C-alpha cells in the first residue's frame, strides 16, 4: 500500500494529466459534435503543438510568446486542413473521414520526423515555473501546478466561448441541427471552419503546455489521442462537459493506478471504457441516439 | 471458357503469380524476404478485407489479434510447452479468435466512428497488457527470441522450413489457402448477408437475419486470420517482436489494404508488397530515406480523396465496367423508357401468388385462429407527445386490412409496433394469439411478420436477384447460421422462391440488373417483393403506392389483391380511392387514437372519418359535407 | 408584382421525381394555403423554396430577385423563413437562446419583448431547454424563431400537426392575428378547416402537380372542388 503522501502526489499528477486530456478531448469532441468528423490526426497535431513550442521557444526565449505564436500557427494549420481536405469529406461516409484524417496524421508526424529528426527534443520549463512549491503537506513541481491552472483557465475560456458568445451559441445549435442553423440565415460552413480551427488550437495548446514536462518526439501524440478517444467514449460523443469530466476521470485512473502498480494504469482505463460500453453505451453525458 | 473453370480463375491466376513471383520479381527489388513479409501482411489483411470490404466495419485494432496469435504461439514454443510448430500455430490462431469474440461482442454494438474508436482502444489495451502485466511471458519490450522454425515430416526425413525460398513457399501456401477460404466465405450466404449489412443494416435485420451475430462472425473471422498471420511471424523471423501489438501495426494494415483495394481479397497482398517495396527501396535513395513514409502518407491522402477503390479495386472496377458496359447500357435504356412511360410500367401477369417456400408454422392450437394479428391497448409516447394512445384492433386472417388517418395520426408508429421495430410504451401485439411484443424486429420477421417500407430500403449495390435472395435466405436459414462454405445460390428452394417472386413482380428480365438502375416503379415492386420473399404469414405494407404514377398504382393494387389471396395483408396508405378498393376492413386513427374500425363501406360513410379528413368546414359544413359524402 | 413568383420548378427526391412544373405566386400581405394528400408535394415545395432541396429546373423569385440554387442561409437573409414540419427546436438550448440564434443574421430583428408580447407562454419558459417544452410550445417557439427575424415571407409546414385540439385553436388564432397584421404566409396543413379559416387563396396539389387554384372563400362555400385533390369519397 503506497503512503498517503505518494497517493496525494499521484492525485495531483492525475489532475495535471487529466486536465490535459480534457483539453485534447474537448477539441476532438466539439469537432466531432459539430462537423461529425472524427479527427484521427489529433495525436499528430498534439505533437505539432509541442514542436511549435520548441521552435518558438528557441526563437523568442519566452514561453508566453511561444504559446501565442504557437496558437497562430495552429490556427493556420486548422484553417488549411478544413479548407483543403476536411470540407470535401462532410458528405462522405464516416470511414472515409477517418481514413483521410489518419493519412493527414501520418504526413504531419513524418514531416516532423523529416525536419527535426527522430530524436527527442527538450523544451525548457519557463523561468517562472522552475523549481518546486511547498504545499504544506508535500512538495510539488511548480510548473505542473501552473499547468493545472493554465489548462483550467483555458477550459474555462472555451466554456465561455461556447456558452457565453453568439459564436458559441451557433456552435451548440449546430451540434444539434446544422441544417436548421442554415435555415435561420447563418452560414454553417464558416461556423464549421471556426470550430475546426478552435479544436486544432485546443489540441495544439495541450501539446505546447505538455512539452516542458516530457521528451518531445514526433510520435508523442499517439497515446494521447487514443486516451482522448476513451475520454469521449466515457463522456459521450459531442459533449463538452463530458470531455472535461471524462478527461479528469481518465487522468486520475491512470495516475492513481500507477501508485499501486504502474503496469496496470492503462489497462484499468480501457477496462473502465469496456464497462461503460456495456452499462451506458451513450457515455456518461451523452444523449441516447446521438451517434 | 467453361463455367467451372471460370469460377476458379482468380485462384488459378493467384497460384501462377505466387509461383512466378520468387523467380521474376527479385531483380525489381523484391527479395524473397520482402515477398515473404508481404505474404504475412497479406494473410493478416485478408481478415480486414472481410471485415471492412465485405461488412463495412473499419477496425483500427487488428494488431491485438495479430499479437495475440503471435505471442501465444511463440511463448508455447519457446517455453517448450508445445513442441510442434504446427500445433502452436493452431493454438495461437484459436486464442486470437477467442479474443476476437470477446472484443467483437463489445465492438459490434456500435458502427462507424464508434466502432473505429473502440477497436483502436482495445488494440491499445492489448498492447499495454502485453507490455507490462504479462511481460514475464512476453518479454515485454524485448519480445520473444529464438522461436523455432516449422519442420515438415518425421524423424530422419524431416525437413526444416528455413528462411528464404522454403519460408516463402510456406507463407505462399498459407496465403493461397486463406484466399481460397476467404473467397468461399465472400460467395457464401454469410458473405451475401454481410454485403447487405454494409448497404443497409436495418433492412437486413427487418428481413429476419441476426445482424449483430453476423457482424460478430465477421469480426471473429478477421481475428482468426490475424491470429494465424501473427503466429507465423515468430517462426518466420525466429523472433516475435512486441510491435506486433502496436497501434502502428493496425494502421499500416489499414493503409496497405486500402491502397491495394478493399473488397478485392488480393488488395492486401498488392498493398503490402508496395508498402514494403517502397520502404526498402526509397530508403536506399541518398537524402530521401526519412521521407519514404511522408511520401506514402501523401499518396494515401490522394487515394482516399480520389481513387477510393485502391489499386486492385480500380482495375477490377474498370474491367467490370468494360465487361458489363453493353448490359448496363441496355438496362439503363430500359429504365429510361419506363420512366418516360414508353415501356410497360407495370406487371401484367395474372398468375396467382404461389410461394414455393413454406411459411413459419403456427402452433397447432392456434392453427385455427381467426385472428392473425391483434393490437391490445398499444401506446407509444415520445416525451410529452402521445404518438399512439391506447389503440386496439384485430386483423382477420386472410384479409386485407387498411390503417388510415390524417398526417400525424400515428399510423407509422403503430405500424412499427406491429413489426416490433418500436417497442410500445404500453399494450402488446399478439400474433396468432401469442405475444409478439418484445421479440424484436428480427424475431418478429422469423415468426412471419414482414414489412415493406414507405421509403425504399433496397440493397442498391446488389442485383434484383441478390436482393430477393437476401430476403429468402432469412426464411430458409433462420436467424443465424454459419454456412461459410456453401455457395450463396446453393439452396434450390431459395432459388425457386426467387424465380417465383421475379415472375410475380414482372422483374424476370431485370434479375441481373443492379437495384440502383431500376425505374422507380420497379424499385417499389422490389421493395414489396423482398418482404413477400420471406414467405410471411402477415405482410405489412407501409404506403405501397407512394410516388407511383396512376398506371403503376392500378397495377400495384392488382398485385396487392393477389397477394391478399395468399397471406394476410395490413396496409397504411394515403390513396383513399385505392384503400376503399382494396381493404375489407379499415382502422382509422386520428391524433393517436382509434377513430373508427370496421368494414370498408361503413368506415367510408362514417361522419367522424369525414370530419377528420376535411375538418368541419365552417358553418356551412352540412352542405359541404353532403357533397363529400357522395359515393364516386 | 408578386412577392414570390415560382415558375415551373421540378424537384427530385433521391431517385423519385416529386414536383412537376409547379408554378405559383404569392402577393404581399397574402395568406396562401397549399392543400393536398400526403405525398402530393406540398412539403417538398416549401423545402424547394427555402433552398433545402434544389429544384432541378425552373425559377423562383423573391421580391423580383432570383433565389433558386442559393443556400438556405442566403435565402433566409433575402427574407424568406421556413418553419419546418419537425419544428427543429434546438433541444439543448433554452427558449431565449433559440431566439437569439435566430435573430443573429436578421437585418431588423424584433426585440425579445415583442416576442414575449405575442407569446406570453414562451416568456414564462424563457430559461427552459427546448427539449423540455411540450409539442405546442415547441411549435410556438419555432414560429417565434421565424418572426423574430421579421421576414417578408413565412413558410409554415404543418404547424398544427400532432397537437391537441385546444392548442391547435390557439395557434389558429395566432396565425389569424399574423394574417391580420399583414404578414405574408404560405402554409401547408392537413387540417383543412383550420387553414380555410384564415387563408386567402389555395393551391391544390396532387401527385406533384398543381391541380387547383382558387379563393379560400369559394372553398368555404363549396368543398366539392377539394374532392379532386383531398381524395375522400372522390
Automatic annotation (TrEMBL), chain A:
Domain of life: Bacteria
One Pfam family recorded for the sequence: BPD_transp_2
Spans traversing the lipid bilayer: 12-33, 40-57, 63-86, 98-116, 143-162, 192-217, 229-250
GO biological process, one term: amino acid transport
GO cellular component, one term: plasma membrane
Subcellular location: Cell membrane
InterPro entries named among the record's database cross-references: ABC_transp_permease (IPR001851), BCAA_transport_permease (IPR052157)
Principal cellular location given in the protein's record: membrane
CDD domains: TM_PBP1_LivH_like
UniProt keyword list: Amino-acid transport, Cell membrane, Membrane, Transmembrane, Transmembrane helix, Transport
Membrane topology according to the record: Multi-pass membrane protein
A GO term, aspect molecular function: transmembrane transporter activity
Stated family: Belongs to the binding-protein-dependent transport system permease family. LivHM subfamily.
Protein name (Swiss-Prot/TrEMBL): High-affinity branched-chain amino acid transport system permease protein LivH
Source organism: Methylobacterium symbioticum
UniProtKB/TrEMBL annotation, chain B:
Membrane topology per record: Multi-pass membrane protein
Keywords: ATP-binding, Cell membrane, Hydrolase, Membrane, Nucleotide-binding, Transmembrane, Transmembrane helix, Transport
Superkingdom: Bacteria
EC number: 3.6.3.-
Subcellular location: Cell membrane
InterPro entries: AAA+_ATPase, ABC_AA/LPS_Transport, ABC_transp_permease, ABC_transporter-like_ATP-bd, ABC_transporter-like_CS, BCA_ABC_TP_C, LivM-like, P-loop_NTPase
An MF annotation (GO) of this entry: branched-chain amino acid transmembrane transporter activity
Gene3D superfamilies: P-loop containing nucleotide triphosphate hydrolases (3.40.50.300)
Cellular component terms (Gene Ontology): plasma membrane
Main location: membrane
Chain ranges of the ABC transporter domain: 373-616
PROSITE patterns registered for this protein in UniProt: ABC_TRANSPORTER_1, ABC_TRANSPORTER_2
Residue ranges of the TM segments: 12-30, 50-78, 85-105, 111-129, 165-182, 213-233, 253-278, 290-307
Keyword Cell membrane listed: yes
Family to which this protein belongs: Belongs to the ABC transporter superfamily.
Record-linked PANTHER family: CONSERVED COMPONENT OF ABC TRANSPORTER FOR NATURAL AMINO ACIDS, CONSERVED COMPONENT OF ABC TRANSPORTER FOR NATURAL AMINO ACIDS-RELATED
Name the UniProt record assigns to this protein: Lipopolysaccharide export system ATP-binding protein LptB
Organism: Methylobacterium symbioticum
Automatic annotation (TrEMBL), chain C:
PROSITE patterns in UniProt: ABC_TRANSPORTER_1, ABC_TRANSPORTER_2
ABC transporter domain boundaries: 4-232
Organism domain of life: Bacteria
One Gene Ontology biological process: L-amino acid transport
CDD domains tied to this protein: ABC_TM1139_LivF_branched
MF annotations from Gene Ontology: ATP binding; ATP hydrolysis activity; branched-chain amino acid transmembrane transporter activity
InterPro entries documented for this protein: AAA+_ATPase, ABC_transporter-like_ATP-bd, ABC_transporter-like_CS, BCAA_Transport_ATP-bd_LivF, P-loop_NTPase
SMART domains: AAA
Keywords: Amino-acid transport, ATP-binding, Nucleotide-binding, Transport
PANTHER family reported for this sequence: ABC TRANSPORTER ATP-BINDING PROTEIN, HIGH-AFFINITY BRANCHED-CHAIN AMINO ACID TRANSPORT ATP-BINDING PROTEIN LIVF
Entry's family note: Belongs to the ABC transporter superfamily.
Name of the protein in question: High-affinity branched-chain amino acid transport ATP-binding protein LivF
Source species of the chain: Methylobacterium symbioticum
